[in-house]
Amino acid sequence: MLVTSALPYANGHIHIGHLVEYIQTDIWVRFQRLRGHEVRFFCADDTHGTATMIRARQEGREPEALLAEMSEAHQRDFADFGIVFDHYGSTHSPSNQRLVNEIWKTLRDAGHVVEREVRQLYDVEAGCFLADRFVKGTCPRCAAADQYGDHCDKCGAVYTPDELSDVVSTLSGTTPEVRSAPHFFVTLEAYRDFLEAWTQEPGRLQPEIANWLAGAFLSEPLRDWDVSRPAPYFGFEIPDAPGHYFYVWVDAPVGYMSATWDWCEQSGEEFARWWSDPSCEIHHFIGKDIAYFHTLFWPAMLKTSGYTLPRAIHVHGFLTVNGEKMSKSKGTFVLARTYLEHLDPDVLRYYYASKLGGGVSDIDLNLEEFAAKVNADLVGKVVNLASRTARFLKGGHLTDAYPDDGGLFEQAARRADEIAEAYEACDTNRVTRIAMALADRANEYVETRAPWSLRKQEGKQEEVRAVCSVALNLFRQITLYLEPILPRLAAQARALLAVEAEAAWRDAQTPLTGNALADFEHLLQRVDPERVQAVVATSVEAER
Ligand SMILES: [Zn+2]
């Protein structure tokens, strides 16, 4: 399997909204590996476009210097949240340029490229054409001032920048003029039959996305896709059209392939095995805002160039915080780095997992619930199982035969397929609910058998050992089920029980017997609500 997360844009730092996707993908990848699949997980920085060019210009340095700095920051943030890629590339790389050129040639050869004049706003002082977001003006519908070039925040109107009045370039503050330049377009309508069949194939896309494409795009002729930008533009120059550059959305998804390519070069792997062999399943994880790039343009590019099409595209919704859009002034626009300065990354992995149900609706990070839930579930239910029993077995062994536990282990073992199905469907909400129900029953058992009282009674030492052996086995089984979400906790559980072999999904079927117990180490800290408030306060401060 080849799995990707969408490429973060090089112009900004990773924030907790981004992390929903990277955590979701990392969980899915870890689950597939636990099931014994060979999986490679790739990502890269999305580097091209006007925004990078402008920022580098403002900072008085080469775009490459900016890219190197941001790539390092992104990779550090991901690693600290336990998100592990096989390779993290860049769309500004020789391998990406070579692949983009190759795919472009196939689009040309297939006769799917046309050239047309496009009228666009041009900033004379900055010397460049203006993307919609570098233009502000007065809304043509409601007359609200200071609205962006493509939509009005006040009334929701959608328009083109030349419909705005009092237009100003946000780059120079001057009034831009309308200029005409040739652009290249891919005639997407030529792919209609293919796209209709491909997007509607059961299992390819979530039903919400398949229906949205059928209703919003495929119900009328598909618009040609504008794939070029005139100079100056930070990107790859089109080989057969000097002075014209590939629009950033052409080379961005190719970054999935070039990351694979660079990894193959480093590891001696064969690129064709991953992108040209239909037995390799390709899975993309993306947010709903970029679904049409990945479900219309990208498959058309792959189809024409003869590479393997994605097996599935998994789409998620956006993150809200306390029920609202992340807000800089309210301190809920939290950078990954700010979070890490105050809180444990694992608990955010768990919280997001508990919220993600496999659909495309938005998920909410409620800061109050966050602390309460993590403390109740992870500390109160899961870790508790070990912390209340491991000390009574200190320096000892689990029983040589698994004791009678009234069927608890066996019943939990029988939930393995159900949990696996939930993981498969990205329904980690269901995974965590099942795991917590199992933890509740295990805790009831410990509560009823009360090893802390038993140990004070004469001749009950074996019974204490039996109760603790059961509790620790149930703990290990639950942490195994949660391993894709909480890999560190699962590893700690294995270390505590001296399990040397690498974890596998089937381990949930067999209790451990006779294992020597390592010293109990502190597994997870309670989330202090004051630390959560500190994250918000720091984020507000950073904004001032
Ligand atoms: Zn308006």
Keywords, please?
single chain; alpha/beta; 4-stranded antiparallel beta sheet; 19 helices; 17 strands; binds zinc ion
Structure, described:
Helix 11 packs across helix 15. The protein has a 5-stranded parallel sheet with strand order 3-2-1-13-14, with helices on both faces. The chain is of the alpha/beta class. Helix content is 45%, strand content 14%. It has helices at residues 16-34, 50-58, 63-80, 94-109, 192-200, 207-216, 248-267, 271-275, 291-305, 336-342, 345-355, 367-387, 408-413, 416-424, 428-449, 451-454, 461-481, 487-496, 529-543, and strands spanning 2-5, 40-45, 87-90, 113-123, 128-129, 135-138, 147-148, 165-169, 177-186, 225-226, 228-230, 244-246, 282-287, 312-316, 319-321, 324-325, 363-365. The protein is elongated and about 95 Å long.
Global mean pLDDT:
95
Biggest sheet architecture: 5 strands, parallel
Count of distinct strands: 17
Helix content: 40-55%
Count of runs of 4 or more consecutive helical residues = 19
Using the alpha-carbon principal axes, give the shape: elongated
Quick description:
The protein has helices at about 15-35, 50-60, 65-80, 95-110, 190-200, 205-215, 250-265, 270-275, 290-305, 335-340, 345-355, 365-385, 410-415, 415-425, 430-450, 450-455, 460-480, 485-495, 530-544, and strands at about 1-5, 40-45, 85-90, 115-125, 130, 135-140, 145-150, 165-170, 175-185, 225, 230, 245, 280-285, 310-315, 320, 325, 365. Helices cover about 45% and strands about 15% of the residues.
